[in-house]
Design brief:
By secondary structure, the chain is an alpha+beta fold. The chain is built from four helices and four strands, in the order H-E-E-E-H-H-H-E. It has one domain: Sufe protein. Chain: A (Alpha-Beta Complex). A four-stranded mixed β-sheet has the order 3-2-1-4, covered by helices on one side. Bound molecules: FE2/S2 (inorganic) cluster (2 copies). One FE2/S2 (inorganic) cluster binds next to helix 3.
């Protein structure tokens, strides 16, 4: 199928029916991510297992279809993954949006489709919001239930 069609379908499906949408009761790492340029935001909840892997991950918030879809896909990709695997995914995602001329990394699966957003630079922030929030969650001490605020910078 046409890649653009597939992109539209996947974004639409995830934004209409976001996976892992909801809250995780404390203690949990909670990150508030927001995109000041539009006011969209997400609240990310990450529960780390003792070995540092992601035991559970959920999000709530309001945002455009791309930010919601990207968050939904991100949670599907990272739930149950080890810290190492998550770090690899984050790097692959970063590479996807900064080197759009490159072949996307296969481990990203469906997320590869988000590469299309490079054509609309304004949307890069939408696609990265959840991933930046996850980065922030990883940087937060997993033993605490701190709440931090992160702002999505330029793509
Ligand atoms: Fe980050 Fe190349 S992957 S700039
Ligand atoms: Fe606000 Fe996409 S328009 S995150």
């Amino acid at each position: 199928p046409d890649l653009e069609d597939l992109y539209q379908q996947v974004i639409l499906d995830h934004s209409r029916r976001p996976r892992n949408f909801g809250e995780i009761p404390p203690p949990v790492i909670q990150v508030h991510g927001d995109n000041p340029s539009c006011g969209d935001e997400i609240q990310l909840f990450v529960k780390f297992a003792d070995d540092g892997s992601i035991e559970d991950i959920k999000f709530t918030g309001q945002g455009c279809a791309i930010s919601q879809a990207s968050a939904s896909m991100m949670t599907l990709k990272t739930k149950g993954k080890s810290r190492e695997e998550v770090t690899t995914l984050l790097a692959a995602f970063h590479h996807l949006l900064t080197h759009h001329e490159d072949e996307p990394a296969e481990i990203l699966g469906d997320v590869q489709l988000l590469q299309s957003v490079w054509k609309f630079p304004q949307r890069v922030k939408c696609a990265t919001l959840a991933w930046r929030s996850l980065e922030q969650a990883l940087a937060t001490d997993s033993a605490s239930d701190a709440s931090v605020t992160t702002e999505a910078g330029p793509g």
